[in-house]
Specification:
binds zinc ion, Metallo-beta-lactamase, Chain A, seven-stranded antiparallel β-sheet
Length: about 425
């Protein structure tokens, strides 16, 4: 991370696994309060969001630096609600729902303890700690979430020469960045319905990069996945990716959208493809709307416990006085219908998660899954950065689904056929891997 003492400018790079089967690297440059650039040094051009409201986000990233953080607290004495023994401060950042306990030592911050509300894990402790001896140029930051390491950063403190600092502002490859309206940063809700077959739709843009299958059956809508608000834990304090949506808020807005598109049509069921926060965390909203909730049998108990926590933020289900009930799927369960029966297929252990459901609409030739295949094109080759999962899914799908089936997914807009996927298995990257 590179930051500046006079401005909110921050340059932040990280490498890591967003999922057990996905590793990636990214660099974000907060160039000014209204300009954020995604730096694509490996594959220019960069993408630049103009007209953002990202000053607070930039400050929340910059707090990774324990000296900048101490200086900021010094400039804002009204954030400190109490001083405890041993140099500990109780701090409330503007807009944050939780207090943080800040430990100061030698003019820098030694540790920050706070909490975050995660959809499926509840309110969990979030602890940042810095090991950075006063005279040493290098330090280590560790972020523990619910007792587990989430993030580790090393810092080398030095003042950049002006030329080097200036170079950081240059767009990658000398190419002009691709400009994107600032309101799209970091994620927006911009829902629209794309009809892919009569009675079978994908609602796109439930938030940026989030798409949901909706099937019109005679008994009501069958929906794949219950999205939830996302907490950005690498920010201090942790903050909602889409501000103000909390945990159930995103699914509540999605349901309002569905009732606007299909007035008077009940929500028959929501199918939770897997037990990750972003796909299952909004299920309480569906329960409040009267929908049946389906998940793989292996995770149904976990989800039921997680979704019925008492200490979670107030939502539409809180007032109803009813518990979430999750129906476990083993093998295949059919939601019957004269025209569009919907098969829920348990897919078992895979490289992404230990249990997953796919949603198959055989009469429309459509299959929907989440996170097992997110192709960038319909070429018959797997993604080099997702080989293990792509090959696993291609093997499963070619064995389990009719050849003409088109595969849709929750994070992308490219929909290959089983024929495309059969090609994966002949590719070098998939040879020798077993499904
Ligand atoms: Zn996932």
């Amino acid at each position: 991370m590179v930051s500046s003492p006079e401005s909110d400018r921050v340059h932040f790079s990280a490498v890591g696994r967003s999922n057990p089967d996905m590793e990636g690297a990214f660099t974000v440059a907060y160039l000014s309060a209204d300009r954020v650039r995604l730096v694509n040094a490996g594959a220019p051009p960069d993408v630049e969001f103009r007209g953002t409201l990202a000053a607070e986000e930039a400050r929340s990233i910059r707090r990774m630096d324990p000296i900048r953080l101490a200086a900021e607290l010094d400039r804002n004495p009204d954030w400190v609600v109490a001083e405890e023994e041993g140099g500990r401060l109780d701090v409330r950042w503007p807009g944050s729902y939780a207090l943080a306990s800040v430990q100061l030592e030698d003019g820098r911050v030694r540790a920050v303890s706070t909490v975050a509300d995660l959809p499926l894990r509840g309110r969990v402790p979030v602890v940042w700690s810095w090991t950075w001896p006063p005279d040493a140029p290098d330090g280590v930051l560790e972020l523990m979430v619910d007792g587990r390491p989430m993030f580790r950063a090393t810092g080398a403190r030095r003042v950049l020469p002006p030329a080097e600092a200036e170079r950081l502002g240059h767009p990658s490859g000398g190419q002009p960045p691709r400009e994107v309206p600032g309101r799209a940063w970091p994620a927006v809700v911009d829902m629209r319905t794309e009809t892919i077959q009569p009675g079978v739709h994908v609602v796109r843009g439930v938030r940026t990069g989030f798409h949901h299958l909706v099937v019109e059956t005679g008994a009501g809508l069958v929906v794949a996945d219950a999205p939830s608000g996302w907490v950005e834990i690498h920010r201090l304090p942790p903050a909602d990716l889409v501000p103000g949506l909390g945990i159930s808020g995103l699914s509540e807005r999605f349901l309002d959208y569905l009732s606007g598109q299909w007035p008077g049509v009940p929500i028959r069921a929501v199918v939770l493809t897997h037990a990750h926060d972003d796909h299952a965390g909004g299920a309480r909203a569906f329960s409040a709307a009267g929908a049946e909730i389906y998940a793989a049998a292996e995770v149904a108990g976990f989800l039921e416990t997680a979704l019925n926590r008492s200490e979670m933020p107030v939502d539409r289900l809180s007032g109803v006085g009813q518990d979430v009930r999750v129906i476990g799927v083993e093998g295949t369960v059919v939601l019957s219908d004269a025209d569009l029966p919907v098969e829920l297929i348990s897919m078992g252990v895979n490289p992404h998660v230990d249990a997953a459901l796919g949603v198959h609409v055989p009469s429309a030739g459509i299959f929907f899954q989440s996170d097992l295949l997110v192709p960038r094109d319909t070429a018959s080759t797997p993604r080099p950065d997702r080989l293990e999962t792509d090959c696993w899914f291609a093997s499963w799908a070619t064995r389990s689904l009719p050849p003409g089936t088109v595969v849709h997914n929750s994070h992308g807009t490219v929909s290959p056929t089983i024929g495309n996927l059969a090609g994966y298995l002949d590719h070098d990257g998939c040879r020798g891997r077993t499904g």
